[in-house]
């Protein structure tokens, strides 16, 4: 693995870092308090080309690699995890499945606005009874004759915790639903899952109120209900019955960008704490000159380095078309734990100021918990890694 960034990747990272410092960071506390996704900032990110980074130019994208997306997500997460996850989920869960599995008509309809950040897409997988065990999905979609001799999917059920699903610019939600049953070679019967595109505003599709979350206040998250929702048969995304396999791949890949997000959070905590340790004078000396504080900062730096190397490695495997599932899980595990640990240490270094919501490290402290839960919990990552070791787990 080559850990040196190319000039182009470095330039992108610097550009997004500057944008994060000058545009995102100054407004982060205000939006966090108001619990509102700043659409003007999303629009500026769209103008910078961030939502189109890993997509081919023919789809309106920037034609860059997946690591470039990760670098952008990391740079944003240093100062605001909510903004970073809006990009990470918007691209990895919202746009990627349409680019990868969409028909020419679906791409033509949805991509122009999505890759430019004029619209957001969401991916609805999780349900009340189906989180870690996504195969337990209960939402159903049945095929019925539709108007004018065509046919429709009729969707019934509900989803929860869906990122980017209720913003004023959300255009479409990809929903996983049971479309039938399949009998395996060994005779066992399994649910057949498929993915279906549901445009925002479709009759019977209701977006519930925002959750009162511990963190990620600026990120948009809602429960969704589907009551006799009818969409044209052409809204099937990918092959019938391939929904499960397709979303598992989307999640594997998404974990690399999610790990970049967690790395950015860990890095942001390190930068804030280091700055403070150099200037806060207690007992007649800067607190950073106390060996305990210096060593704490050393550990924080080591965690960031380890997390970054892990996601670079997983991204490099993805780019070279070699198996990356286990490495993506390791990256997600290591980086989310690094973010949590760094947020705790940074808050401690700030003393009382670390307990004020206006302090970015306090926001990281609240925000980082979900890094161990979203896109597969820590236990799910351990399960994947154990299976990679040949254990049944
Ligand atoms: C802010 C936020 C945004 C989200 N965005 C999205 C989104 O855009 N789209 C989407 O589809 N979902 C989204 N999610 C859902 C998220 O992916 C799930 O919450 C997560 O996968 C866990 O599922 P669960 O909450 O049902 O927990 P459960 O699956 O009920 O797990 C409960 C606990 O049991 C543990 N556990 C479960 N199975 C095992 C096992 N076999 N061995 C050991 N421990 C186990 C888990 O690790 C966890 O600690 C989001 C969640 C949050 C909080």
From TrEMBL:
<keyword id="KW-0285">Flavoprotein</keyword>
<dbReference type="InterPro" id="IPR009075">
    <property type="entry name" value="AcylCo_DH/oxidase_C"/>
</dbReference>
<keyword id="KW-0274">FAD</keyword>
<feature type="region of interest" description="Disordered">
    <location>
        <begin position="131"/>
        <end position="150"/>
    </location>
</feature>
<dbReference type="Pfam" id="PF00441">
    <property type="entry name" value="Acyl-CoA_dh_1"/>
</dbReference>
<dbReference type="InterPro" id="IPR037069">
    <property type="entry name" value="AcylCoA_DH/ox_N_sf"/>
</dbReference>
<dbReference type="InterPro" id="IPR036250">
    <property type="entry name" value="AcylCo_DH-like_C"/>
</dbReference>
<feature type="domain" description="Acyl-CoA dehydrogenase/oxidase C-terminal">
    <location>
        <begin position="241"/>
        <end position="389"/>
    </location>
</feature>
<dbReference type="InterPro" id="IPR006091">
    <property type="entry name" value="Acyl-CoA_Oxase/DH_mid-dom"/>
</dbReference>
<feature type="domain" description="Acyl-CoA oxidase/dehydrogenase middle">
    <location>
        <begin position="122"/>
        <end position="229"/>
    </location>
</feature>
<dbReference type="InterPro" id="IPR009100">
    <property type="entry name" value="AcylCoA_DH/oxidase_NM_dom_sf"/>
</dbReference>
<dbReference type="InterPro" id="IPR006089">
    <property type="entry name" value="Acyl-CoA_DH_CS"/>
</dbReference>
<dbReference type="GO" id="GO:0003995">
    <property type="term" value="F:acyl-CoA dehydrogenase activity"/>
</dbReference>
<dbReference type="InterPro" id="IPR013786">
    <property type="entry name" value="AcylCoA_DH/ox_N"/>
</dbReference>
<comment type="similarity">
    <text>Belongs to the acyl-CoA dehydrogenase family.</text>
</comment>
<dbReference type="Pfam" id="PF02771">
    <property type="entry name" value="Acyl-CoA_dh_N"/>
</dbReference>
<keyword id="KW-0560">Oxidoreductase</keyword>
<feature type="domain" description="Acyl-CoA dehydrogenase/oxidase N-terminal">
    <location>
        <begin position="6"/>
        <end position="117"/>
    </location>
</feature>
<dbReference type="Pfam" id="PF02770">
    <property type="entry name" value="Acyl-CoA_dh_M"/>
</dbReference>
<protein>
    <submittedName>
        <fullName>Acyl-CoA dehydrogenase family protein</fullName>
    </submittedName>
</protein>
<dbReference type="InterPro" id="IPR046373">
    <property type="entry name" value="Acyl-CoA_Oxase/DH_mid-dom_sf"/>
</dbReference>
<dbReference type="GO" id="GO:0050660">
    <property type="term" value="F:flavin adenine dinucleotide binding"/>
</dbReference>
């Amino acid at each position: 693995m080559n850990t040196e960034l190319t000039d182009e990747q470095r330039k992108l990272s610097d550009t997004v870092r500057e944008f994060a410092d000058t545009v995102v960071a100054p407004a982060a506390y205000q939006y966090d308090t108001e619990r509102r996704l700043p659409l003007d900032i999303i629009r500026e990110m769209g103008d910078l080309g961030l939502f189109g980074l890993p997509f081919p130019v023919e789809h309106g994208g920037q034609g860059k690699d997946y690591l470039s997306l990760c670098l952008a997500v990391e740079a944003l997460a240093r100062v605001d995890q909510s903004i970073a996850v809006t990009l990470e989920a918007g691209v990895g869960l919202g746009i990627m499945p349409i680019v990868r599995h969409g028909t020419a008509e679906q791409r033509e309809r949805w991509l122009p606005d999505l890759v430019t950040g004029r619209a957001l897409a969401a991916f609805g997988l999780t349900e009340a009874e189906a989180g870690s065990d996504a195969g337990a999905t209960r939402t159903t979609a049945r095929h019925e004759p539709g108007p004018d001799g065509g046919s429709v999917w009729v969707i019934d059920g509900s989803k929860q915790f869906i990122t980017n699903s209720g913003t004023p610019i959300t255009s479409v939600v990809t929903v996983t639903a049971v479309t039938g049953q399949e009998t395996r070679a060994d005779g066992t019967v399994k649910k057949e899952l498929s993915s279906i595109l549901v445009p925002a505003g479709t009759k019977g599709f209701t977006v519930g109120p925002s959750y009162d979350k511990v963190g990620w206040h600026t990120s948009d998250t809602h429960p969704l209900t589907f009551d006799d929702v009818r969409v044209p048969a052409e809204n099937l995304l990918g092959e019938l019955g391939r929904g499960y396999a397709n979303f598992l791949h989307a999640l594997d890949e998404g974990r690399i960008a999610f790990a970049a997000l967690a790395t950015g959070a860990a890095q942001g905590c390190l930068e804030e704490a280091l700055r403070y340790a150099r200037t806060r004078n207690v007992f007649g000396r800067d607190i950073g000159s106390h060996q305990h504080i210096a060593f704490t900062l050393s550990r924080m730096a080591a965690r960031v380095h380890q997390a970054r190397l892990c996601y670079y490695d997983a991204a490099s495997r993805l780019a070279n078309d070699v198996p990356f599932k286990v490495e993506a899980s390791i990256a997600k595990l290591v980086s989310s734990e690094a973010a949590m640990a760094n947020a705790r240490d940074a808050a401690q270094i700030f003393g009382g100021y670390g307990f004020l919501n206006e302090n970015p490290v306090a926001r990281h402290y609240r925000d980082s918990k979900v890094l161990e839960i979203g896109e597969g919990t820590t236990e799910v990552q351990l399960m994947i890694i154990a299976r990679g070791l040949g254990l049944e787990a």
